[in-house]
Amino acid sequence: MAYKITDACVACGTCAGACPMDAIAEVDGKYEINEGVCVSCGSCAGECPMDAIVEE
Question: Are 25 and 16 in contact (CB under 8 A)?
Answer without folding.
Answer: yes
